[in-house]
Amino acid sequence: MRRLTLAAPLAIVFLLATGASCDSKSDNAGPAPEFSSVATASAGATASTPKPATSSAPPAAPVWPTPETCITYNPGNVTSVYEAGFYMIRDGGKELLRLAGGPGSNIGQQGVALAKRYKKLCFLGRGNTREESNQYIFEYWRDSSGNNPSIPDENCGNYDKNNLTVENMGGNDGWRVLDHNNPLQLFNNESDARNGKLVLAKYSKICRIGDPDDNGVVVTYFP
């Protein structure tokens, strides 16, 4: 702000020299100037507009495979129907699983007990066109029903979920997920294998129903 000063001494000398009275007033005298104490911005100043904050964080990793192929069903309606060497696990007219086994096998009971634990069955690799297509299908179950019926003759194994790798087996053999040198599951392609690893990394124990040498039908689940 500019600082204003009044030249009082010079004004007095001038009046004495001309003989003017100290009491005289100019007819043109106006009101005393008023000075504002509010500072004003210079003409060239511009207001600073804050820029919106931007995040450089990477997108969150998916929790489950996307998109998912799943069947939602009513666990209270699950039954087993045997026909021509297969036990069909159904919710009414909706087929969930088809497990190979003879007339005296308990594999149908295993399938029913497993299905009653959940409300949703999801797949990776269903619909693949490989000659042994069943070996490249991976099942995982979601939405617990709150019931936990025992599964006769459970076949389970532990693995290290922090040591999983995805491997291309080359040629037309597909992909697989391993725990070190322990193969856990075959997959039709890389996308299925990486989604399978995402599921396997949530658990540390894998169980199977079925015999891979019996028409290759094996159902996986995680207790």
Written account of the structure:
The chain is α+β, with helices and mostly antiparallel strands and 223 residues long. It is built from 3 helices and 12 strands, in the order H-E-E-E-E-H-E-E-E-E-E-E-H-E-E. The strands form 4 sheets. The chain has a 3-stranded antiparallel sheet. It has a 3-stranded antiparallel sheet with strand order 2-3-4, covered by helices on one side. It has a 3-stranded antiparallel sheet with strand order 7-11-12, covered by helices on one side. Strand 2 and strand 3 form a beta hairpin.
> How far is it from the N-terminal to the C-terminal residue, by CA?
79 Å
Strand content: 25-35%
Radius of gyration: 42 Å
Q: Going across the major beta sheet, what is the strand order?
A: 1-5-6
Helix content: 10-25%
How many helices in DSSP terms? Answer: 3
As residue ranges, the low-confidence spans are: 1-29, 35-45
Shape estimate: globular
**Helix and strand run:** HEEEEHEEEEEEHEE
Short key terms for the protein model shown above:
alpha+beta, 223 residues, three-stranded antiparallel β-sheet
Task: Give the topology, please.
Elements (H helix, E strand, L loop, with lengths): L7 H11 L50 E4 L5 E6 L2 E6 L2 E7 L6 H9 L2 E7 L13 E7 L10 E4 L5 E5 L6 E5 L2 E6 L2 H11 L4 E5 L9 E3 L2
Antiparallel strand pairs: 1-5, 2-3, 3-4, 5-6, 7-11, 8-9, 9-10, 11-12
What's the gist of this structure?
The protein has 223 residues and is an alpha+beta fold. The chain has a domain at 69-221.
